[in-house]
Design a protein that fits this description.
The structure is a homodimer.
Chain A (H helix, E strand, L loop, with lengths): L7 E5 L2 E6 L20 H8 L3 H8 L7 H13 L6 H8 L4 E6 L5 H16 L3 E6 L4 H12 L5 E4 L7 H8 L5 E4 L14 E5 L1 H14 L5 E4 L6 H16 L9 E2 L5 H11 L8 E4 L2 H13 L9 E3 L16 E3 L2 H17 L5 E6 L2 E3 L11
Parallel strand pairs in A: 3-4, 3-5, 5-6, 6-7, 7-13, 8-9, 8-10, 10-11
Antiparallel strand pairs in A: 1-2, 12-14
Chain A binds a DNA duplex through α2 and α4.
DNA sequence: CGTGTGATATGGATCGATCTAAATCCTGGG
DNA sequence: CCCAGGATTTAGATCGATCCATATCACACG
């Protein structure tokens, strides 16, 4: 290879691409193994004059093998840079060491942190995470499920896409692989025979806590702001809100229910709707933090000071909630913890495939900050 | 089972746990398969009186089989709810259909979106993503690498943990599996023989663009705010800043370089340091968006109006950047696109294992908004 | 000296698919 | 009626590990 060809540099649009040739001695002597094949248990056996069975025993730390042979084999394992082929072992043992994690929206920080928790816990238990992101499309969900199931995961953790249907999911999953549903229910009505574990958030209780908090602070005209009626989590949160209002003997005016997409931009846009009717609310329970932060912006634009002239709460306790001006009163759902919990649940299910299905509604915790006016700092 | 035992409800702390017994007919008739084992290719063969080889050919859509037998086999496949065992096939074919994706911090929205892009692209290509999150710990990185490599991924996409070391990583990965490095370089000095692909962000150019933008707007006293000197990306961005200043013939005062942790809280705290010396800067290039948003808060607290009394830029273009008051001028890095690109690169590498290593520095794009004063709206 | 015993080691079948080479079937030409 | 040759099908080995039943060995005991 000529020195002149050492580097090829391309300027493309903005970025750069370097092409660096491979050094001549592509693969130097790899101990003793043939250049390309991975070394297998048989290579080790041959390499130190014992049978494959013995090597296998050593790999699994069996007490049956003599200390000396064990040492000899272990030395050879290191010498040949052996890596265990778990797929082969799993095939023979009819086991699996992976769990599929299928999320409707990995790019959402809430699910990202959930995934992080799942992976953490699974890793500790010696399992590996098979990831699948469906981008909120039930067609992709089908495809992803079918693809992942072929890799034979021991279990599946699924946060369904919106509009995901029971029968389709069950058809793809089959009856063999345990399923844990997270965050959302499946649409359609389930066949009687079907059963799976569920891990949900206590949306209803969360919204009730927030509403009660505002009531305690003296508010009587409280709105429910944001979210769409057809989202199940929004329905649940709204139910918690109405429940608290009813218990406190407060009537809800129709114009106190303002819908908007669960993001900041739309929240800003819809803010005026809150004040269209009379009496105007003095506080709002928001569908989630994004919406609450948007509403705060909208209030500022109307010359109102959130936490002072108007109290509001969020839901999720995203990172920015603590840092807003003012900081946001909200409900912490601890997504990483939920991830660890989901992993634990599916692992338990593997140990007891026949035990009763569990339906867990996970606690949420009210985090009081200045936006609700409780800690108002002028 | 008695009706009285139908449900067990536990109230625990905040949440609830339902235990729902499994219906009596746990597994109804599963077509014809024995209750518990998965159906295999042999079952299908036996079920419709052909050989295993023929079924295998049908599965892979070979044109060699007669239309009639093909139809017969396909019918039986459906009847028995057959699912392909890709692990077994991979073992025989000595192939792999998975790619390992190892991230230093999955909970970070930037990486979450990157992962989302990777998974999307890999899915399209028929690959499955093996996830591993290292939580910024090089020990965990080692463990995760070793665990994932045992599952025989066809390739590895690695965004290294801070302080991750070349030799350790190479020892875990081995020479067989192609490696693509994303976002960061590995520490330590690499052995000559080693080579792998790299996909990095054009940190330097990004910071230069931001700085040039501020200079064009008339600023002469420009600070570089945030980040730590020992982070490689921070060093690169700082280099871009100094380069632009030098080219424009502007001297940098020492007190214009203020370090802080790459988050909002610390940025607020360090804000006053910017104005400790004279002459005070009239603008700042910030290490990233979080820092820039923090600095905006700090400026407000000093009674200054960002984008009006003081110009500033961020880096990353996180979701909140567009929604701040004022919206933040920043550099878009398109993490999802980078993810798709990373997936593409590793897939290409699988097709050409011996082609030259690529070093790609991905473009970043200046997104001008009001915070830099270019679009000042009073 | 034969043999029972505990400690080790191993051959060969096996998991569920694929591959290779060879067997079978079918059809038309000689 | 036989056979070449294309169209189909298949038996059996194989991937890299594990499991089972059996083999081997050293030693002690009657």
């Amino acid at each position: 290879m000529h020195a002149a060809l050492q580097y090829a540099i391309t300027r493309s649009n903005f970025g750069y691409i370097w092409i660096v040739p491979i050094p001549d001695s592509t693969m130097a002597m790899e101990s003793t193994a043939p250049v390309h094949r991975k070394t297998t248990l048989s290579d080790i056996a041959a390499g130190c004059g014992v049978s494959r069975a013995t090597v296998s025993l050593v790999l699994r730390g069996s007490p049956l093998v003599n200390k000396l042979t064990q040492a000899k084999v272990e030395k050879e394992l290191r010498r040949q840079d052996y890596v265990y082929n778990r797929a082969a072992a799993n095939l023979r043992r009819r086991t699996s060491s992976s769990i599929a994690l299928i999320l409707n929206d990995l790019a959402n920080p809430f699910f990202a942190e959930f995934a992080s928790g799942v992976d953490e816990k699974l890793g500790e238990a010696g399992y590996v995470t098979l990831l699948g992101s469906t981008g909120e499309s039930s067609e992709r969900e089908q495809a992803v499920l079918r693809s992942l199931i072929e890799h034979g995961p021991a279990g599946i953790i699924l946060s369904p896409a919106e509009g995901s249907d029971v029968t389709h999911v069950l058809a793809a999953v089959g009856a063999q692989t345990p399923l844990l549903l997270f965050n959302r229910e499946l649409g359609g009505n389930a066949p009687k025979s079907a059963h799976w574990d569920r891990l949900m958030l206590d949306n209803r209780r969360g919204a009730r806590l927030a509403t009660e908090h505002l009531i305690t602070l003296g508010h009587r005209h409280i709105a429910f702001f944001g979210g769409h009626r057809d989202s199940s989590s929004c329905r649940e949160r709204f139910a918690g809100y109405t429940e608290a209002m009813r218990v406190a003997g407060l009537r809800i005016k129709p114009h106190w229910r303002v819908e908007c997409a669960p993001n900041r931009v739309d929240a800003v846009v819809q803010c005026p709707a809150l004040f269209a009717g009379s009496p105007a609310p003095t506080a709002a329970v928001c569908y989630n933090d994004a919406v609450a932060l948007g509403l705060m912006l909208g209030l500022c634009q109307r010359g109102m000071q959130p936490g002072h002239d108007f109290a509001l709460t969020g839901f999720d306790n995203i990172a920015e909630a603590a840092l807003g001006m003012p900081p946001l009163t909200t409900l912490a759902v601890a997504p990483r913890e939920r991830g660890r919990q989901a992993a634990e649940l599916i692992l338990q299910r593997l140990h007891e495939p026949l035990s009763a299905a569990r339906y867990i509604i996970s606690p949420v915790q009210l985090v009081v900050r200045a936006s609700s006016g409780a800690l108002a700092t002028t």
